[in-house]
Amino acid sequence: MKKLIYFSIFLSLVLLITSCFKDLDDEIRPVSVSDINNFIWRGMNTFYVYKEAVPDLADDRFGSDQQYIDFLTSFSSPETIFEALKTQETVTIDGEQIRVDSFSFLVDDYIALEQAFDGITRSNGMEFGLIRYPNNPNNVFGYVRYVLPDTDAKSKGIQRGTIFNTIDGVQITDQNFSNLLAPDTYTIGLATFDGTDITPIGNTVSLNKVQYTENPVFITKTLSINGNPVGYIMYNSFTADFDTQLNAAFGQFATDGVTDLVLDLRYNGGGSVTSAIDLSSMITGQFNGEVFTTEEWNVDRQAQFGKTNLFDNQIRTNAGINSLNLNRVYILTTRSSASASELVINGLDPYIDVIQVGTTSRGKFQASITLYDSDDFGRDGANLGHTYAMQPLVLRSINSVGFTDYFGGFTPEIEVVEDFSNLGILGDPSEPLLKAAIDHIMGNRFSPNVNSINLEEIGESKMYKPDYQKMYIDQTSL
Question: Is the pTM of this model over 0.85?
Fold first, then answer.
């Protein structure tokens, strides 16, 4: 990344706060809040895609160094100034007010953020969703979506469809679920759900979190459907470190002669843009070198960083992409399908028949980068006095025909609501979402589950990860 030139105001401020960088007996002293606030303002002023909508980020906002210093010191914490510098604009979708920026975020530990981008987090292996009770919306129950291999939950018999409604003996509610589920160790109280009522069964399971690296290529198989090879892959995060495994799965599909593909992104909250482009190139292959998406940065950065992303034929290791050259793909989605998952849908849509099955996706078309407190906001030279970093939205993604700003998400052609009382087995042809896709492939009439109801989901296990529902571009691409 080229070094950026800042206003003289920053030089003056640096002189005023150099005492924060003094090294006494080789011990690094913590920096001041104002110094961190300075980093946040500089980064947002430089990169924030919605800069023009925030008056406090204008280049001519401050008439003097002292005005700028007074502004920084008026905020008691880095968190408060960061929130104040995000746009407060909203859009109305189907009568609902949606914030234009619900995704920029600040962290006080960039080591944990970097680990999350690599798929490394603390986990007990139980990936779950949280649902309001149908007859008492203040109360909440959890349902297990899937269980990660070689984890505590797996060893203790937790499986997809397990229902729980208490943590450490306390009823889960819409007010306490974050605190109850945050510790490394907790005990879940098991229950049943018949579609209407939650019934405790008196059993409990204690679960422990450890550092864990999740392989997002969760299930891959070739199904024989009336003699036709149908590929099925459940991909749960666009994690750069597992691009090789993803490519290998498509290599097996190619060997199996797959003619149709079901891509299960129902719980995939996003991740690397590069991985999303490569996945789309694996599905196709016949569009190598054509426009996948373009990037719209703020007016100050567009000339420097704005670019066109193309379908390609190599993953980031330079290995050749295993492409299927398909003209149709089935993508399974829920509200948890976000950012890079939606990028695949939007990028492919002008080129092939994208048939979406499930429920409406999240609605996230912006991407972010990690900014560190250094001269050029890169990791090298980052201020050693703190570990704050931020992940602001820096670009809007636009497909090859100009479509973007899908705040309301993508609506499926075939709507199937997951039935939490009978979720089915992932990858089994009888599982409701997969069955609906297979029925369409085979030309069979789809019969929706009339007993399922669309209950409100208010959270999930991945919401505790710092990269939750984020789409980011590789730092090496800047």
Answer: yes
